[in-house]
Design a protein that fits this description.
The structure is a homodimer.
Chain A (H helix, E strand, L loop, with lengths): L1 E5 L7 E5 L2 E4 L1 E2 L4 E5 L8 E6 L21 E2 L23 E4 L1 H4 L5 H6 L1 H7 L3 E4 L3 E3 L9 E7 L5 H14 L3 E6 L11 H4 L3 E7 L2 E4 L6 H18 L4 E4 L13 H16 L4 E4 L21 E3 L1 H12 L12 H10 L6 E3 L4 E3 L11 E4 L3 H5 L13 H12 L4 E5 L19 H16 L14 H6 L10 H19 L11 E6 L4 E6 L4 E6 L5 E4 L3 E5 L4 E3 L4 E4 L3 E6 L1
Parallel strand pairs in A: 8-9, 8-21, 9-12, 12-15, 15-16, 16-17, 17-20, 20-21
Antiparallel strand pairs in A: 1-5, 2-3, 2-6, 4-5, 6-7, 10-11, 13-14, 18-19, 22-23, 23-24, 24-29, 25-28, 26-29, 27-28
Chain lengths: ~575, ~575
């Protein structure tokens, strides 16, 4: 096989360690090294040595069967026998997404384990799964955002073939697959990219240290590394979309932002494959440029996460006001979120101590992804508590209803649909003891600020923390879990079957509310449907004409004048 | 007067030191402190003390009569008697700009000194002067980019009234005024802003250290500081435009880039005043977003410097290939620059070691400012040599001709028009001896890299370096200087009077050239005019129909077949 490696930092040699020997690569221009090496056939293990240094994984390694410090393995993507020839891609505007973490979703904690629960996903009615990062990171257990081998599906999950099996199985059941990819930083362990070239630089800083070098000297190859990686998932793994982690931490001052370069390349691949491929940004900037078209000066991504929709809802439902929730808490803000996803659209944010965001006018609902719970909002709490652990079942149903009747793309988090009894805590498995200790201690210190006693903060490195976070599918034998599941199923079925209840333009949804009495009514105009919620302590009489489609509690309808009595902490959906 | 100061870093008190006393300010919200202080009348000197600390200038001080470490002085902008009521602003598309440095332009080195030479500027025919930074910096002598009191015209130049007198005088003679303002960093001496608030932060780094905080906590007031400053020049000093220094070093990841915020605010002021005000960016990014309209996702600036036009020309004329000139040197690149200003429009730049820039398609000529010489291109050389010192008078005339027949906005540098005998060297006057030594040493080290002996590099701190850089107006008594001046005058008059020879769309100019024979012919389509240059060692016969309008050397016309003989290092302009 012809092997080509970008290693401008090699001064004299780049060698391939394979089959017990060392094969030198030839230097071509701009730091490229290459050779045609017959021993590098599918399944062969190899490593790279720069200037006679220790063996390192190939930066573009397709498989790291022995982990981040081990040998790379050649994968022949052509060899996989796909059966999904009729799969036509993901229509975001008509989809409900389901975020899952492969390691904790099933007892097996593998790609195969996800396949084993596919009946559940299909009967739930979601349209696609979104996998938290699936590429090789240090250790076995982890959320995945500390990944370092961006081209190699995590061995502990089942490696390349395991992921392909999962995507193929999903497609055969009518489910799409979105994969969460991390291009803004690399994990602290097993990251050898800087030995090869200027992947990182000091000009821009992120929460995780040096920024990725996408606009400095040598950045063409760094950009190609990222863009090619995106294309690889879409092409070699048939995934339907990518969730781009924390794009606000990718600072690119050059004339063409790397995300625009990526979206243009993906559109070209989409056209060639005849299947649309979706790029979805996680961004907290409330900036339209990510989803506007390049013609309008934007980057052309399909959609952007809008966490403020969550925050506005969560703060109202729980009354929490710590950290970023201090920016939220009013029904007025919730109404704004329900209508336009972004609450801060050019207003002063006390938590950020600056004006934040910009009007989303001109964007449409399918360009925003919203959720009532996700891995971050649950797992970044000290105890990893789900919304279910923080508020009443009635309020959880309110959250689900607002989510699944929203004009934006809804996303569920694994187990949310049955009010899972398990938390989702922060867990790691760093092999370097010093790093492991630092992470454990950092976590304790972080939450000491919020008044947590050190001994109460789950230790990320402790395997028990990981185990606690694993879904318990036997929850479903209990009625309050199966009751919640029925509620979610009914909502998803309604969203799917009710005309015009999917994504819509921003002006399709209107909101009426009373901050004193704590009720709120959403109208979805085109769908001809209203959602009323009562967050007050008492039942409320509301004027709400139409037929009740769903209600979370018995609703008293007073005949003749369209008045209903809505109990506290309950929600009703009516159709006019 | 009501004084309001943003000082969120004050923990207990902000006091005004005025008239021998200390007046405490009251704290209002978000770090604002204020009081109505009768003693602060026009002409009063005052300083600010934070938490009982040493006296500091007001960050928005309008005048620092005793320099960057001295007291601030209240200025009543309403009191100045303007006479320029009929001045209607600057039409960039029909203008030639003239960059000057107040300290070296005249013997006096003051704003008044500029007024004294205004006849020269008027008779030269330029439309506006562009002043290198005019606000207070440490010491008396300096280029001005190390300025720190961004609201206070440099005292050594004549302070606020001196600048107003200059602007008023310019307007009365039909000249516009553009001021160079520096918002990307502050100078190293006399910079007390960080005592007051988070003006700088560590997330972004520039060549000059910490970046300006325009998108982090507290940035609203930093942005207001900058935007209000821009408006102040346009409103209180009647300047017609601002040259925004090195905007590529202002990193703003927020939803609305500060330059867009600025351009929107300036447009509002323009509308209110009924006079257009121009924002011109210095940017080396070759990115259309700076000049595209906000509707197109851009920042809405009027124009951007395009230094590559200079580099392409300079490298061809001089054969130099050091530093960034290594990216240039071919007639092909010169032809591209002449047509579209940007040479690197998405191509790999060896000097930057990355792909650089983006196509300027869709932009128009008046959105680019070009020059054959400017303070940077001259002064950033070890010896500060003008183009005149590097090549033949014939080639200098070629440069002038290409510049003044270009479809972009031409800018001259003081003395260029007479091939001034004086260099323009890098000079400083840092009052802190350690800083002064560091700057001198840094300069020597920088040029050691290019083979300069330390003793040959002019010492920036030496007053003689400054004096050497002062224009010698008595140059004009010598014929080779007056001859060059006549050439520039003729070209400027031609640009002004010849129909359609000003700025134009990018497709108005076509270029034909022969890289072997080293000739090049520019056609300005709408103007019906050709410019032919011969950079070869021998005279060339060129086919060039039309009437000769100007030629830098005797041109032999062969009758009947449109052939002319163009001597080496010469240029001719013909009209068809």
């Amino acid at each position: 096989m012809l092997l080509s490696v970008w290693a401008p930092r090699a001064e004299a040699t780049v060698e391939v360690l394979v089959a017990g020997g060392r094969v030198p690569l030839l230097h071509s221009e701009r730091g490229r090294w290459w050779a045609d090496i017959p021993e590098l056939m599918a399944g062969a293990d190899y490593a790279l040595s720069i200037d006679g240094g220790p063996p390192r994984p190939d930066p573009r390694s397709a498989h790291q069967p022995a982990g981040v410090d081990g040998m790379s393995r050649i994968v022949d993507h052509e060899a996989f026998e796909w059966t999904d020839t009729r799969w036509g891609g993901l229509d975001l505007g008509r989809s409900v997404l389901y975020e899952l973490h492969v390691g904790t979703f099933s007892g097996a904690g593998t790609f195969r384990g996800v396949i084993d629960h596919m009946d559940h996903l299909v009967s739930l009615g979601v349209d696609a799964i979104e996998l938290m990062p699936v590429v090789e990171f240090s250790g076995v257990r982890g959320w995945g955002y500390d990944c370092v081998d961006l081209w190699a599906p995590h061995s502990a999950y089942g490696g390349p073939d395991g992921l392909k099996d999962l995507v193929d199985a999903c497609h055969s059941r009518g489910l799409g697959v979105v994969v969460d990819v991390v291009y803004n930083h690399l994990g602290p362990a097993g990251n050898f990219l800087a030995d090869f070239g200027p992947y990182f630089d000091d000009r821009h800083h992120t929460n995780w240290g040096q920024g990725i070098n996408v606009d400095g000297p040598g950045s063409d190859e760094v950009r190609a590394f990222i863009v090619d990686n995106a294309l690889m998932w879409l092409r070699d793994y048939h995934v339907d979309g990518l969730r781009l982690d924390a794009v606000h931490a990718i600072v690119d001052e050059s004339a063409t932002h790397i995300l625009e370069q990526m979206s243009v390349a993906v559109q070209r691949l989409s056209a060639a494959r005849g299947v649309p491929l979706r790029l979805i940004a996680e961004s907290d900037l409330n900036a339209p440029r990510f989803v506007r078209s390049p013609r309008e000066g934007g980057y052309g991504l399909a959609a952007s996460w809008a966490d403020e929709w969550h925050h506005a809802l969560h703060a109202v439902l729980t009354g929490e006001s710590d950290g970023y929730y201090s920016d939220f808490g009013s029904l007025e803000q919730l109404a704004k979120a329900l209508q336009q996803a972004w609450v801060y659209d050019g207003e002063y944010s006390p938590h950020r101590d600056r004006v934040h965001g910009r009007s989303p006018a001109g964007l449409s609902g399918e360009q925003f992804l919203v959720c009532a719970q996700n891995h971050d909002q649950i797992g970044n709490r000290a105890g990893g508590e789900r919304l279910t652990a923080l508020t009443s079942p009635g309020r959880v149903k309110i959250a689900a209803t607002l989510l699944l009747t929203s004009p934006f793309v809804p996303l569920l988090f694994q187990g949310e649909e049955w009010a899972a009894s398990t938390p989702f805590q922060y867990f790691t498995d760093h092999q370097d003891p010093a790093l492991g200790r630092a992470v454990s201690e950092g976590r304790r210190n972080e939450f000491a600020y919020f008044g947590w006693r050190p001994e109460d903060v789950p230790d990320p490195q402790d395997a028990a923390t990981f185990e606690r976070s694993r879904l318990r599918w036997d929850d479903l034998s209990q009625s309050h879990h199966s009751d919640m599941l029925a509620w979610y199923r009914a909502l998803i079925a309604l969203r799917r079957n009710h005309p015009h209840l999917g994504c819509a333009e921003l002006d399709d949804l209107t909101v009426d509310y009373d901050a004193d009495q704590q009720w709120l009514i959403v109208q979805r105009t085109a769908a001809g449907l209203s959602v009323a919620i009562n967050l007050g302590v008492d039942a409320r009489v509301l004027r709400l004409k139409g037929d009740v489609l769903l209600s979370s509690a018995p609703v008293l309808e007073k005949l003749g004048d369209g008045l209903i009595v809505l109990p506290a902490d309950s929600v009703v959906i009516v159709s006019w």
